[in-house]
Write a structure and sequence with these properties.
- The protein is an all-beta fold and 185 residues long.
- It has no helices and 15 strands.
- The chain folds into two domains: 92 residues, Immunoglobulins (Immunoglobulin-like, Sandwich), CATH 2.60.40.10; 79 residues, Immunoglobulin-like, CATH 2.60.40.
- The strands form four sheets. A five-stranded mixed sheet has the order 8-15-14-11-12, with no helix packed on it. The chain has a four-stranded antiparallel sheet with strand order 4-3-6-7, with no helix packed on it. It has a three-stranded antiparallel sheet with strand order 1-2-5, with no helix packed on it.
- Strand 1 and strand 2 form a beta hairpin.
- It is globular.
Amino acid sequence: MTDLTTTVQSNGVLLQWNPILGSIGCRVEGGLAPSGSLQTLTAMGEDVDSYFVSQGKLKSGKTYRWHVQCGCSKSKVGDWSVWDEFTWNGGSGLVADEGKSMPADMQVFPNPTSSELHVSLSRDIMGLTSIKVFDAMGSMVHTTSAKINAGDVSFTLDLGHLSSGIYVLELSSDDIAIRKRFVKE
């Protein structure tokens, strides 16, 4: 399971993923981040790849996490995906994943990395920016903040202290959050 995408819309949030080939259904599990109670939903259908969460089920200003698991039968089920997160702001602002449906795009390289991760932004994100790294279980394993000025479109993070695995880098400011997956060797 790869390529989770969270798209915030005015009336709710669209959760999308790439299902395993031939899947007949997927389970979506989610709730308040980082450790709120979780609800499990079942999305049935051949190669189902999305689930819409209406605004009535979301609380403004709260951060939610979700992941998905798809299967071809009751006895053949894939692994759970990594966790993804989004913040609901009543449909205002923009919180998205992987550079889709948002005003700024972020590239990370080298990917995979052994220690230093270079981050490049296609547009300016100005102001105080939170920089967080989450592991595959959704736990925050690194955090810092930086004041990014106009024209600053790249920087480097030293992540040599992280264990090998899959991670998500998140940059967030007042009205945007950008997430990108990377692998630490």
